[in-house]
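#struct-pred
JK: can someone run the complex with 3-phosphoglyceric acid? inputs below
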Amino acid sequence: MNDITSRLACAPVVPLIQADDPSVAIATARALAKGGLTVLEVVLRTPAALECLQALCALDDDIVVGAGTVLNAKKTHDCIERGAAFIVSPGLDEGSVHAAQSQDVPIYPGVMTPSEVMRAISLGLDVVKFFPASIAGGVPALKALGSVFGELKFMPTGGVSAANLHEFLAVPSVLACGGSWLTPKAAIADGDYEQVTTLASEAIKIATQTRGEQK
Ligand code: 3PG
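RT: done, structure tokens with the ligand placed:
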């Protein structure tokens, strides 16, 4: 287990940060960390995403910042250059996987089918994103994949929320869940960072309870 994987085992929820402005990204990250979520994913879906990523990676805060929606090897390098501690992608792009592996940075590419899982395993991966989790079969699909691919861990994302987090985290092969529900656009636009902290605390509470039940 690398450092990030073991940190995710303790705080197994990864909020997505989609920001146009580094100061908003920083305020969002701090609100999430205040609620207990310290492994964060900046998604490359805005023109300022790389700048936001760099600003968060430069903070002296106790947070782990990765990059998401990374679609190719060039973007993988760009993100690592700006300090990304891990890379997430909606799909499995071998160039991105090799780019991340060549720099010893963990990468969690998205998979949806057994064949994609097998490609991920043959690339030497032990953690993958399961995306879009709810459309790809949700908890029953994860259980089926988990029973076949013993050692592999999944990070379901896409349709995960406070309402179903418990069910996803209760699946033994799930390392962590990702999602955008923790960073509602409207709350952030209104500067309501307390709401972000409340959502993060709620997620940690659900995670602690679920993982406690598994012991
Ligand atoms: C992702 O990039 O992982 C998804 O867009 C997140 O899906 P969600 O908005 O349903 O959480």
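RT: quick notes.
The first strand starts at residue 13 and ends at 17.
The beta strands are 13-17, 39-43, 64-68, 87-89, 107-111, 127-130, 153-156, 177-179.
JK: thanks, will look after standup
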